[in-house]
Structure formats: C-alpha cells, structure tokens
C-alpha cells in the first residue's frame, strides 16, 4: 500500500554565488532603520506532497525532482525533510 | 556586548490562498512523469544575519522585519528559527 509523504524542501544559492535580491532586501531594511542586519540571502521553500512505497522511495523521488526541476545544481544547493502523513489531507483546505 | 544571530525564515502562502506557481510546478512534474505528486506549494526561505543584545532582542527584530517587509500578512504566514553564531562568519565565503 502506498503512503503519503510531505517533503519540506529548501533551495539556497551556493555561498559563492551573489544574491542581488538578498542585497536589495538588506538595503531596504537599512533604509527602514534596521542597521543591525549583516546579510540577507533569499532562497526557495517548497512543500511537495506525494505518494510513495516507503520513505526511501519518497526520498529518491524528491531527490530527482530537486535535481531535475526545483534546483539549479550549478548555482544552488538543496536539502529536504520528509514526514509521513498519517491521515489523508485535504489539499484545498 | 552584542551577539550575532542567524534567522532562518520560512514564508508560506496561507492554506486558503491559491498558489499558481505551485500548480505550474506540479503540472511540470506530471508532464515529466511524476504522477505520484499530490500537491506543490511554493514559499520563500530567507536567511538573515543580524546583531542583537540577546535572543529576545533578535526575535523581536526578526518579527518586525517579517511583518514589515518579508511577508504579506494578508496572504502569507511566516515562522523562523534563530541560532546564535559563535564565531564571526565571513559573509562572502
């Protein structure tokens, strides 16, 4: 029987890659008076729900999805956490 | 003495708000053969480094920054985790 999993995926720019959006946010914060901010880096956060045989199967699928679509491995890193959903979830709630 | 903190901030659309970007990614994944994907929701992940007196001060600043700039409270939720940076970090590394 297949199970439902939720993956929380974090995609971040590699540390050596410049982040113009983060720099813009930092400048905006400084303009608003937040002088204590040292740096801002902006990434993506993606929640994916999927069915899989087990956690290893889910993990493999999420790895493939990240490599092929969600992250650009040349400039981005990703990591994710998986949790099994015990009750079916209404995705429109 | 002020300390350095890093906040990991997650900004997500409220569950009742439609996510066209997530729907587009889901359609793309289906087109690529990932039929097991049930839903995709896309949010933002922001890392902010700042100086603060203590963790309560840092937490308050991050709350204000999220409310005023990073999140739109009408359609988005946010949550964050704070950690103290024990050694000064080269932000360009």
How would you sum up this structure, described in words?
- Two copies of one chain form a homodimer.
- The first copy, chain A, has a single domain (3-85), classed as Mth169, Chain: A.
- Chain A is α+β, with helices and mostly antiparallel strands and 93 residues long.
- Chain A has a three-stranded antiparallel β-sheet.
- Helices cover 30% and strands 40% of the residues of chain A.
- The A-B interface holds A 2, 4, 10-12, 15-16, 22, 25, 28-29, 32, 34, 36-52, 61, 64-65, 68-70, 91, 93 and B 2, 4, 10-12, 15-16, 22, 25, 28-29, 32, 34, 36-52, 61, 64-65, 68-70, 91, 93.
- Strand 2 (37-52) of chain A pairs antiparallel with strand 2 of chain B.
Topology, element by element:
The structure is a homodimer of 93-residue chains.
Chain A: E1 3-13, H1 20-31, E2 37-52, H2 55-70, E3 76-85
Antiparallel strand pairs in A: 1-2, 1-3
Key traits:
about 30% helix, alpha+beta, 2 helices, 3 strands, homodimer
């Amino acid at each position: 029987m297949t199970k439902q999993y939720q993956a929380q995926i974090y995609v971040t720019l590699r540390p050596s890659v410049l982040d113009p959006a983060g720099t813009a946010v930092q400048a905006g914060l400084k303009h608003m008076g937040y002088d204590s901010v040292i740096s801002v880096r902006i990434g993506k956060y993606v929640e994916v729900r999927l069915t899989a045989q087990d956690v290893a199967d889910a993990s493999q699928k999420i790895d493939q999805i990240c490599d092929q679509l969600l992250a650009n491995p040349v400039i981005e890193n990703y990591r994710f956490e998986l949790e099994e959903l015990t009750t079916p979830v209404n995705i429109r709630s």
